[in-house]
Write a structure and sequence with these properties.
The complex is a heterodimer of chains A (291) and B (176).
Chain A: H1 2-5, H2 9-26, E1 29-30, E2 34-36, E3 41-45, E4 50-57, E5 60-67, E6 71-74, E7 83-91, E8 93-102, E9 106-114, E10 117-119, E11 126-134, E12 145-151, E13 156-163, E14 168-173, E15 180-188, E16 191-200, E17 204-205, E18 209-214, E19 217-222, E20 226-227, E21 238-245, E22 248-255, E23 262-265, E24 271-277, E25 280-281, E26 285-287
Parallel strand pairs in A: 2-8, 10-16
Antiparallel strand pairs in A: 1-3, 3-6, 4-5, 4-7, 7-8, 9-11, 11-14, 12-13, 12-15, 15-16, 17-20, 18-19, 19-23, 21-22, 21-24, 24-25, 24-26
Chain B: H1 2-27, E1 34-39, H2 50-73, H3 85-101, E2 103-119, E3 126-140, E4 143-160, E5 165-173
Parallel strand pairs in B: 1-2
Antiparallel strand pairs in B: 2-3, 3-4, 4-5
Classes of the chains: A mainly beta (291), B alpha+beta (176).
Chain lengths: 291, 176
């Protein structure tokens, strides 16, 4: 302190400043601007002596002792998740630098399709969304063309390349004319994902019924129930039979089984029997009183 | 006279500081830890219903609260409710990795400006862009090794679960 007081003020100031700046330069960190997910990286530092190096990012929080001036290797397994990474170097005080890890090439197509069953002839009834992910499940944000194809054994319903925006591409299309499976494919370069949607008949069309008298009442049944395109309506679809006489009404719901719905009505004659399904109403049968 | 001018300057300074600090807080009332503002005006092709918007904003806010808790305390239990898939995986790894290295991370004063940019036709996935501002402190034991307050840009995929929206993808990008 005694010697120091004898030094000119400027010399002291320069000395102090130099003392402050040398360690800072010694801890300078050089990091890559960005790294592809799953690829390794190296960070360089300057100076001499020991320091503590930290790597903090998605899925990683590392701490290790290093020698300043040596190259710091970061393993590929530490850089698998896309995002921002911080490299921190501490030797007395701490300095940091950041870099980004971005998704690698797409390796998976996630293909979301709706619905699983769709009636024929429905406008914009089928939709699909494709999302591209790399080997480490990172969403790939790079614009990539995805080719969507929707086809049934009898017709091509939709085919269009759509480029991903923000990692996703989507389409919507109408269902076809014929009942049966429809195959939907989303492909991007060598990658492909396939889904199947079952097209089923639409609402029943032209319901026709017939009746027969039995000892237990009137047995009524439909003719094979079809939609307006001629597709057999799915088994399980409910047909409502209604019998109306002077005393009131009786209604029976019966599911289609083997393409035909049946019901037995114990109603006094005369009676008027009709059938309906959804908004479709069938013919009326008038059964008169026996003489 | 100079005293009067000085007090005028002081008053201006106080007003400026009040505008800087009070107005942002007023924009996010009742949310001291994590504030989320969700803009759905650009979402499509499906329209985001009001109740869905409310639910997504609430779950996203809670998710960040849980994320901050997990990384500050070094326990993964807070991640259970609102993170799934890849997002859950890397957060779990972060917690485990922090436990091994003795590090912890504190996020505070979070302000998230979130925009919905894609809502799938059948409502089974929503993509968000989040411009977030918060303070990050990284601790090695009791020693602070990093402290910053800055803006971060996140891309987020959320999907509906039984009674909530969960985060499936959450990653930071240099710019949106």
């Amino acid at each position: 302190m005694k010697n120091l007081s004898g030094l000119p003020l400027l010399t002291v100031l320069v000395g102090v400043l130099a003392g402050l700046t040398v360690p800072a330069r010694a801890q300078e960190l050089n990091v890559p601007h960005s790294v592809i997910a799953g690829e390794g990286a190296s960070v360089s530092s300057h100076g001499n002596g020991k320091a503590t190096f930290y790597l903090v990012g998605p899925g990683v929080s590392q701490k290790r002792e290093i020698s300043l001036g040596d190259e710091i290797r970061i393993a590929p397994t530490d850089l698998e998740h896309a995002g921002r990474y911080l490299a921190i170097l501490c030797a007395g005080d701490c300095r940091s630098a950041e870099f980004s890890v971005i998704a690698a090439e797409p390796s998976t197509v996630a293909f979301l399709v709706h619905p699983s069953r769709v009636p024929v002839h429905q406008a914009d009834a089928i939709s699909g969304v494709a999302l591209l992910f790399d080997h480490f499940s990172n969403l790939v944000l790079t614009s990539t063309p995805v080719n969507f194809v929707v086809k049934s054994p009898k017709e091509n319903l939709f085919s269009k390349p759509i480029t991903t925006q923000n990692g996703e591409a989507w389409f919507r299309t109408s269902s076809g004319k014929a009942a049966g499976p429809v195959t939907l494919t989303a492909s991007a370069d060598r990658l492909s994902a396939q889904r199947v949607v079952q097209q089923v008949a639409s609402e029943p069309c032209n319901l026709r019924i017939k009746a027969a008298e039995t000892p237990h009442g009137i047995e009524v049944q439909t003719e094979p129930v079809r939609d307006c395109a001629g597709n057999p309506v799915s088994d399980g679809t409910i047909i409502s039979f209604t019998g109306a006489d002077s005393a009131g009404r009786i209604s029976i719901d019966a599911p289609i089984k083997g393409g035909i719905a049946r019901a037995r009505m114990a109603v006094p004659e005369p009676v008027v029997i009709s059938a309906a399904s959804g908004v479709t109403i069938g013919n009326e049968l008038r059964i008169g009183k026996k003489p | 006279m100079s005293g009067y001018i000085h007090s005028l300057h002081s008053m201006r300074l106080v007003i400026c500081l009040a505008l800087i600090f009070v107005i942002p807080l007023a924009a996010f009332p009742d949310e001291p830890g994590v504030a989320v503002h969700l803009d759905i005006s650009k979402a499509g092709p499906r329209k985001v219903e009001t109740e869905t918007e409310r639910r997504i904003a609430a779950d996203y806010r809670l998710a960040w609260d849980n994320l901050a808790q997990a990384l500050a305390s070094g326990t993964s239990a807070p991640l259970d409710a609102l993170f799934v898939g890849p997002a859950r995986e890397w957060l779990q790894q972060s917690v485990s990795s922090q436990q091994r290295s003795g590090l912890s991370t504190r996020y505070s004063n979070q302000r998230h400006q979130v925009r919905a940019i894609f809502y799938s036709p059948e409502g089974d996935v929503i993509e968000l862009q989040d411009t977030a501002e918060y303070q990050t402190q990284i601790m090695d034991g009791q020693k602070q090794i990093h402290d910053e307050r800055r803006t971060h840009n996140f891309v987020v995929l959320m999907t509906p679960a039984a009674d909530r929206w969960v985060i499936r993808q959450l990653f930071e990008v240099p710019q949106l």
